[in-house]
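Q: Here's a chain of 116 amino acids. Please give me its 3D structure as tokens.
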Amino acid sequence: MVVALTKKLKNYKMQTYKSNSQYGKLQTSSVITTFDLNLKSFTDFDITLTGDTAFTISGLPPVNQTLSFTMIIRGSFVPTFPVGWVFAGDSYSGAVDNFHAVHVNNLKVTAFITNL
């Protein structure tokens, strides 16, 4: 059983979605009301909320490809993320910086939050 599982894992190939550049690009913004996480243009986001903010996401990788990005979000306001995002780790706190490590796989989004 272990041999069969090992063989399957050796033959598994994960395709990784590549952004437009070799290195990540940081977008730093102060936002109010709405903010689009444009993954075609940026791989990292440093965001200060100046009001309750609804996030959208664009530039998602095609099916069977993956993409990871990071966000630091701060501000004593309410961030709202698209339906279907799965969160793990700490809860958002407006009193500290919130680091989000986000992974997109087959159009599913998982975010791990750490309060800094």
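Q: Can you summarize the key feature?
A: The chain has one helix and eight strands.
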